[in-house]
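Journal club prep — side note

Before the paper discussion, L.F. wants everyone to see what a predicted structure for a comparable chain looks like in token form. Sequence:
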Amino acid sequence: MGHKDGRIRHQLLANNRYDEALGERESAYQGRYQVTGNYIEYWDDTGFTADGEFIDGVLYHAGMVLYRKE
């Protein structure tokens, strides 16, 4: 999943871990995630939490809109 400008990218891994890249900084944040229906929760390895919602295949997360990368 990524922001339209490609600056923010989330890779949701099959083992319920995620990797977030910010601009040129790969693996800026990592942690675990859980999807329940259209709702996603994140627990970052540094201790903070976040959430989001999938609507029509688009992820709305922390004021951002992230699209599936084809």
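L.F.'s comment for the group: The beta strands are 8-12, 17-22, 25-36, 39-44, 49-55, 58-61, 64-67. Keep this in mind when we get to the figures.
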